[in-house]
Specification:
Number of strands of chain A: 4
Strand order of the largest sheet of chain B: 6-7-8-3-9-10
Largest interface: A-B, 28 and 31 residues
Radius of gyration of chain B: 23 Å
Distance between the termini of chain B: 44 Å
Structural class of chain A: alpha/beta
Oligomer: heterodimer
Number of helices of chain B: 11
Order of helices and strands of chain B: EEEHEEHEHHHEHEHEEHEHEEHEH
Strand order of the largest sheet of chain A: 2-1-3-4
Helix content of chain B: 25-40%
Shape of chain A: elongated
Largest sheet of chain B: 6 strands, mixed
Strand content of chain B: 25-35%
Shape of chain B: elongated
Number of helices of chain A: 15
Number of strands of chain B: 14
Chain lengths: 373, 315
């Protein structure tokens, strides 16, 4: 046997052993399919940025027909459900403080005069501003054009013409799953793969297997490649599962090429796995590895653009987010799945992943010496 | 190889921070023999073994193993070396056979050779019936046999065993040593660390370690014959009283109870150690029967570790 084929057979021995571990460790093995399945179903349904059915209260101090129509129109948007009717503004405010309602509609006693004068707001919306998404929904309600059945038709038409007409590209129905499901590929891979690799190597150290392994002819890069290779396959299986669920449960179409998507996934998986490797060279125990993986996980979720739009963040946060593999992968996966972009068009986000992989694996190999000190 | 020495070290030292774990150790371990490291926990046995197989870099000094410079040639040594760690270090969730298969592949044994070796080892170490059982469910003795089988799978020239019998029963220990002697007959050099006197006595050569230093070395019989003290054995009804009397004598190095007897180590300079001890006991009205005895390895161990402590106190 030549040195190279020996090296390959050692890598394959380690990779096959890793699969055996996974098959026997039912919990971790179950996580391989369980996490993507559970999270995609849960988040696909649960995360909904298109806010509807906010609980609302009304205090109608005018008591006119026009006022009742206004409340009806507001309800007709489905943004609010009027669940409470108060007699005073104070009572409405108390409901807001107690968290029983998110939105309060105050119709003042001089509502009819305001409607005729037309230079002042006719009514008031009290909103729980603690949640920006609720606030944004209420803003939408504030700009509601009241179909003024009492005004002259010409005037009503003039008021109804907006400055901009909005067209939502790539997601015309503005459905959240279209936005969330492709991004879940990145989030779930980050969550499972970083943790799996970090723990897989630290476990060998913790159980003393490494002390034996480093006295054998196995080389550091062989050990690392053998340990992470199975997780590349697992990463692909997970992405496939999420995309299939997205396509057939949530109706998320894949606009771009599947080949490009899988190639991009490969680069991202490699980067995520080397992050796990890096953690494994720092952590002494599985618990430490778990903690460290979590520390890298949270900022990635919050800053990558998965939860909040990237453009709203100050530059230090954006700069930090540019380091994370997840940030770039989200752009790649959304680009290919939603906009039908090619990997070439997204190369701006491919090379940072390649760079991350190269630097991280370099550091990991340097740090992981075949020694105990 | 023509060289009759398997391991040679000069001034081998390893520090962990301010702690000197191994302190200028000089060793010569002959080929095809069992060489023992005897010492209490923390005496530097494991650290020395780890330096010899390249897992730790010496702070100072040189080590030559099978003609290779350590740690520079550590990679070249791997194929010739078998290492059995203090803790069971095979995979508990893999079966006996899977563990051996895995290591066989790591050592690049061909498929046929691997299969033949594994069958032979399962037979030799009486693991045939356990072959498909997970390693984690084996008993202490079975785990230890599996670990030795794994360490010898690739037929290494040199075998390091770090306290291999600390978790097994006496019968398993006897069997284990039988296996070691069979390996030595085939030309393997074995370096074994232990804190059992009876095991140390079975070695061809021995180094007694105490706080990182070699305080005595040589064949066990020679060490016992050339002990730096006379061994006096005391029998009597009140051993505690006898012990108190002897502890006050300046020429008595140490007293240890062995069942119904006391072993006292008396300075060599004392001309008639047995009668000196007998007189001292008679003067104190302690009834006892005193005879000169043959030194045991434990006596050697006590005498040599004590000498180190004294020289340190004088320095």
């Amino acid at each position: 046997m030549t040195g190279f084929t020996r090296s390959l057979s050692r890598i394959s021995a380690i990779a096959r052993k890793e699969f055996r571990h996974l098959r026997r460790d039912r919990l971790t093995g179950g996580m391989v399919a369980g996490v993507p399945l559970m999270m995609t179903m849960l988040f696909g349904y649960a995360i909904n940025q298109d806010v509807r059915h906010l609980r609302a209260g009304v205090v109608d101090l005018a008591g006119t027909q026009r006022a009742r129509l206004l409340v009806q129109d507001a309800q007709a948007t489905q943004v609010i459900d009027v669940v409470y009717s108060a007699r005073s503004v104070e009572a409405l405010e108390r409901q807001l403080v107690e968290g029983r309602i998110s939105v309060g509609i105050v119709i003042p006693a001089d509502f009819e005069r305001r409607a005729i004068d037309g230079d002042r707001a006719r009514a008031q919306l009290l909103v729980d501003g603690g949640d920006p998404i609720v606030l944004a929904a209420a803003r939408g309600l504030a700009s509601l054009e009241m179909v003024d059945r009492f005004a002259r038709p010409a005037a009503a038409a003039a008021r109804a013409a907006p400055v901009f007409e909005l067209r939502a590209y790539y997601n015309p129905e503005r459905r959240s799953p279209v936005h969330i499901v492709p991004a879940l590929c990145g989030v779930i891979l980050t969550l499972t793969l970083v943790l799996f690799t970090a723990v897989a190597i630290v476990r060998e150290r913790e159980r003393g297997n490494l002390e034996l392994l480093i006295t054998t002819p196995v080389q550091t890069p062989e050990l690392m490649v053998g340990k992470i290779a199975p997780y590349v396959l697992i990463g692909y299986a997970q992405v496939t599962l999420i995309l299939v669920l997205g396509r057939y449960v949530f109706g998320v179409p894949i606009q771009g090429s599947l080949l490009g998507l899988y190639a991009g996934t490969g680069v991202f998986v490699a980067a995520a796995l080397t992050l796990g490797l890096l953690i494994s060279t720092l952590a002494q125990t599985q618990f430490q590895a778990f903690q460290m993986a979590f520390v890298t996980f949270l900022p990635q979720i919050l800053l990558s653009g998965f939860m909040f739009p990237f453009d709203g963040m100050p530059w230090p946060a954006r700069w930090l987010a540019e380091v994370f593999p997840l940030t770039h992968f989200l752009r790649i996966v959304r680009g290919i799945v939603l906009r039908g972009a090619t990997l070439g068009e997204l190369s701006r986000d491919v090379w940072p992943l390649v760079l991350f992989f190269s630097v991280a694996i370099g550091i990991a190999i340097l740090r992981f010496r075949k020694r105990l000190d | 190889m023509s060289d009759a020495i398997a391991i040679r070290t000069r001034g081998l030292t390893r520090c962990f921070g301010s702690l000197v774990a191994v302190d200028h150790v000089d060793l010569e371990v002959p080929r095809a023999a069992i060489y023992g490291f005897l010492g209490p926990n923390g005496s530097g046995k494991s650290t020395t073994i780890r330096m010899l197989c390249g897992l730790l870099v010496p702070s100072e000094g040189e080590a030559e193993v099978l003609g290779l410079q350590m740690p520079r040639d550590a990679e070249k040594l791997r194929r010739k070396l078998g290492y059995m760690t203090q803790r069971f270090s095979l995979y508990e969730d893999l079966s006996v056979r899977e563990n051996l298969e895995f290591l066989g592949e790591i050592y690049s044994l061909g498929k046929a050779q691997r299969r033949a070796r594994i069958e032979a080892l399962l037979e030799e170490f009486r693991l045939g019936e356990r072959a498909e059982q997970r390693a984690g469910t084996l008993s202490g003795g079975q785990k230890q046999r599996l670990a030795l089988a794994a360490a010898t799978l690739h037929e290494p020239e040199l075998l390091f065993l770090d306290e291999p019998t600390s978790a097994v029963d006496p019968q398993s220990r006897r069997d284990f040593w039988e296996s070691l002697f069979r390996l030595v007959e085939r030309g393997t050099t074995i370096l074994v660390s232990t804190h059992y006197m009876d095991e140390a006595e079975r070695c061809h050569g021995l180094a007694i370690l105490d706080r990182g230093r070699v305080v005595a070395n040589g064949a066990p019989e020679r060490l016992m014959a050339e002990i730096e003290a006379a061994v006096v054995e005391i029998e009597g009804p009140d051993l505690r009283a006898a012990r108190d009397v002897l502890a006050r004598l300046s020429e008595v190095q140490s007293v240890a109870q062995l069942g119904q007897r006391l072993h006292a180590l008396v300075d060599r300079e004392v001309a008639e150690p047995a009668s000196r001890v007998a007189h001292a006991l008679a003067d104190a009205d302690v009834d006892a029967h005193v005879v000169l005895a043959r030194a045991s390895l434990e006596d050697v161990f006590v005498a040599s570790t004590r000498r180190l402590r004294e020289s340190e106190a004088n320095a």
